[in-house]
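SEQUENCE-TO-STRUCTURE ENTRY
===========================

Subject: a protein chain together with a token-level encoding of how that chain folds.

Sequence line: the amino acid chain in single-letter code, read from start to end.

Question of interest: how does this chain fold, as expressed in backbone structure tokens?
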Amino acid sequence: MRKLLLPSLMTAALLLSACGYHLVGHGDSEGAITADVKTVSLIVRGESDRQFIANLKQRLSSDKYALIEPRDVVDQQGHANLNVSIAPLRFTPSAYDAAGVATQYHMTFSGSLALERDGKSSWQSGLIQTQGDVYVAGGPTSIEASRERMLRDLRKQWLQDALGRLRSGF
């Protein structure tokens, strides 16, 4: 069965590529920010810190467009606003010991992106969510350190996923 499956999949892939089929958003695609956009303003709403915004700006920098403040927009024609909405962090107990004390928490970091041109939405990422578990061991200081470490990791993963969607155009 396996011997037949692999050649069949390879044949299907070759036939599709021969006729010019490709996945939308990959290859030569410009992504959500098209070539005619010369300036982009970043507008962040929701819970975020300065480090998160600095990382976002750094990862968004491109030689195709300039990142500018919304108040510095001169040419609306070649401008887009990238709206970043961050939802409140969810930190909920997910496992308990025999005494009913929480031993594990589930953390969810979520948000979305929307590109706006001329006052109209031109692209939306949909919900982007990263999640992980924090295991409770030790005292409050240890728990808070674990929580901060997990939040840092979730933000980094969210940022990577969000920029992947933006660049692919999906």
